[in-house]
Amino acid sequence: PGAHIDVFLPSGRRRQYSLCGDPSDVAEYRIAVRRIPDGGGGSIEMHDLTPGTQIQISSPRNAFYMAVPGAGSPSTRLRFIAGGIGITPILPMLRLADRLQLDWTMLYTGRHRASLPFLNELSPYGERVTVRTDDEHGLPHASTLLAGVDERTAIYACGPAAMIAATRAGLPTGSQAELHHERFSAPTVVNGTSFEIELARSGETVTVEAEESALDAIRRVRPHLTYSCQQGFCGTCVQRVLSGEVEHREQLLTNLQHQDGQMLICVSRAEGQRLVLDL
């Protein structure tokens, strides 16, 4: 549960989608794609695919895995929080939790009920699942998101950045509750400054603007560069730094990897004005 695949579309676009099927069914992969008319075009292309069209996908990767209480997690309870299409990685988790007869609850939130997929698949779980929409109750506060959470609870949250931020802010300072989260978009760059990146193998230089990631800047000249989560979770975009100081904005790489010159270009930045990468 929590895994995703990369889908390579006929146009050359590459998109990531969470697997939302039953984790016990290994015969097929199920994904859900919300059509976004004013997005980057990937969701429209996905919806326009016809039966028989062949596309390439990656093997599943998981940077949002669920640690089962008593077998990898010290927690004894689970709290699932999903916002809109963020239900997709959560759905297999609660299926597994229910199958294992774990102590769990879920809050499912969104703008209105029509915007919430899979409501019919949640109905068998009864009072364990609370559906709360903005049009009926207003935006959820941290006390609602974290209802019933204590030090023994592991929290799994997926949805809009504001929902994740409210969940994180609602935990008391020093709380021992586990918080695992996934966004469906790259995090906003905070306190970023512009810098340059030289691609050593080609000699090209790109400017990384204050509000964009190094990955986005490099993809202007290397559109087929390998990447996946864009959040510093999966490690797919790691590159070697040949020169310059790095401001590491992730918690995935070890200190030894940092010392070895490795950098996740989706989130980390330059400490100074320039980096040279082995690209």
Automatic annotation (TrEMBL):
Keyword flag Chloroplast: no
Cofactor(s) listed in the protein's UniProt record: FAD
Signal sequence interval, chain numbering: none
Gene3D superfamilies in the cross-refs: 3.10.20.30, Nucleotide-binding domain of ferredoxin-NADP reductase (FNR) module, Translation factors
Short name of any one Pfam family annotated for the protein: Fer2
Residue runs in coiled coils: none
InterPro entries: 2Fe-2S_ferredoxin-like_sf, 2Fe-2S_ferredoxin-type, 2Fe2S_fd_BS, Beta-grasp_dom_sf, FAD-bd_FR_type, FNR_nucleotide-bd, MRET, Riboflavin_synthase-like_b-brl
Keyword Lipid biosynthesis: no
Recorded GO MF terms: 2 iron, 2 sulfur cluster binding; metal ion binding; oxidoreductase activity
Keywords: 2Fe-2S, Flavoprotein, Iron, Iron-sulfur, Metal-binding, Oxidoreductase
FAD-binding FR-type domain location: 1-67
The 2Fe-2S ferredoxin-type domain, residue ranges: 195-279
Name assigned to this protein: Oxidoreductase
Organism for this UniProt entry: Mycobacteroides chelonae (Mycobacterium chelonae)
